[in-house]
Design brief:
Blueprint (H helix, E strand, L loop, with lengths): L1 H9 L12 H15 L3 H4 L19 H14 L6 H6 L24 H18 L17 H11 L11 H15 L4 H7 L1
Helix pairs in contact: 1-2, 1-4, 7-8
Length: about 200
């Protein structure tokens, strides 16, 4: 139901079944439409149109219809599973774990890869749980998200070109550098930060 709602609001529910689709695909899409039709009319007014999306060049594994299934899974199970890593490692056994597109079946595959799952856990799940009052959060063992240009640029600006990479090995260090980037580098306030340090 959560997936049907997200797909409907995104305007990505297929309007007409393709004759080349398997029976499994047609049944799956029918189930999604059944869930979407039950939604109130005022909610449907906020749905995007398919033309609102630019989907050219998107790899099938990264297509929004697959990513929305991962989002529906996360939202549905957010409060049930105590460990962020466990939540992201557990993939729903459904259509999108065995299909890469509406037409193409594949060997079972994860909806979200480990680097992206780590970024979601660190940047979304942990802050959500902290904001809702959960007190048993282990900030010392956050999953480490992939190194990116923001982290590298901030470390270079703060510590110079010859800084040791061990400075940002931990998840907290990377989160700190990302925060410094947004608070000081992106706003051109680096000198203000240097006077504070």
């Amino acid at each position: 139901e959560a997936y049907a709602l997200l797909l409907g609001l995104a305007g990505l529910l297929p309007a007409n079944p393709d004759p080349a689709w398997s029976r499994e695909t047609r049944d799956f899409v029918r189930t999604l439409w059944d869930g979407w039709w039950r939604q109130p009319a005022d909610l449907k007014e906020h749905a995007l149109a398919p033309s609102d999306w630019t989907l050219a060049g998107i790899r099938p594994a990264n297509h929004p219809v697959r990513r929305l299934m991962a989002a529906a899974h996360l939202v549905f199970h957010l409060r049930e599973i105590p460990e962020n890593r466990q939540l992201l490692a557990e993939q729903p056994a459904n259509f999108w774990t065995t299909h890469i597109s509406w037409k193409t079946a594949c060997t079972p595959t994860a909806l979200v890869g480990e680097p992206r799952a780590n970024a979601i856990a660190t940047n979304l799940l942990v802050p959500f749980r902290a904001a809702t009052g959960e007190t048993k959060l282990d900030f010392g063992h956050l999953p480490i998200e992939p190194l990116n240009s923001v982290i590298r640029l901030t470390a270079h600006a703060l510590f110079g070109p010859d800084h040791p990479p061990k400075i940002y090995r931990s998840a907290l260090a990377r989160q700190g550098l990302i925060q410094v980037f947004h608070d000081y580098l992106a706003t051109r306030r680096l000198e203000e930060l240097r006077t504070l340090v």
